[in-house]
Design goal:
Blueprint (H helix, E strand, L loop, with lengths): L1 H15 L2 H35 L10 E4 L2 E3 L1 H43 L7 H24 L8
Antiparallel strand pairs: 1-2
Helix pairs in contact: 2-3
C-alpha cells in the first residue's frame, strides 16, 4: 500500500518540477495579481469620473428593473467589460513588446553568425590556381635574387 503512494508522490514531484509547470504556476499567480490591479483601476479610478460625467451615477446602480427583485445590472456588466478591455490592451502591449525583443535578438544573432561565419571553402579549381600563383611568386623571387648583380661591399 505504501509503495503505490510513494510512487504517486514521486511522479507528482517529477511533474511539478518540470519547467512548464512552474512557468504556468508563475503565470497564474501574476495573472491573478494583475486582475486585482485592473479591477481596482476600473472600479476605483476610472468608473467614478465616468459616473460623475453621466450624472453622478454609481455604475453598480445602473440597472433595468424587470419587476419584483429581478433586474438586469448593466452597470456591473459595463465595469466588467471595461476591465476586460484594459486587461486585453495591457496583454497586447506586453506581447507586442516581447515579440519586438525576440525580433531584435534574432537579428543580432544573425548578424553575429554572419560575422563569425568561416570563409567558404575554395573549389578544387580555385585551390589549384592559388597553389600555382604561390609557386610562381616563389619562382619570381628566386629569379630576381639570382639575376640581381652582385653589389660591391662598401666598408
Amino acid at each position: 500500500m505504501i509503495q503505490p503512494i510513494k510512487g504517486f508522490f514521486a511522479e507528482f514531484q517529477k511533474f511539478a518540477t518540470r519547467g512548464n509547470f512552474i512557468d504556468l504556476a508563475i503565470g497564474i499567480v501574476i495573472g491573478t495579481s494583475f486582475t486585482a490591479v485592473t479591477n481596482s483601476l476600473v472600479n476605483n479610478i476610472l468608473t467614478p469620473p465616468i459616473g460623475l460625467l453621466i450624472g453622478g451615477v454609481n455604475f453598480n446602480q445602473l440597472v433595468i428593473p424587470l419587476g419584483g427583485t429581478a433586474q438586469i445590472q448593466y452597470g456591473v456588466f459595463l465595469q466588467t467589460l471595461l476591465n476586460f478591455v484594459i486587461t486585453a490592451l495591457a496583454l497586447f502591449v506586453i506581447v507586442r513588446l516581447i515579440n519586438r525583443v525576440e525580433e531584435i535578438a534574432k537579428r543580432r544573432k544573425k548578424q553575429d553568425a554572419a560575422q563569425t561565419a568561416p570563409a567558404a571553402a575554395d573549389s578544387p579549381e580555385v585551390a589549384v590556381l592559388k597553389d600555382i600563383r604561390e609557386a610562381l611568386k616563389h619562382l619570381n623571387i628566386l629569379e630576381l635574387v639570382h639575376a640581381a648583380p652582385e653589389t660591391p661591399h662598401i666598408p
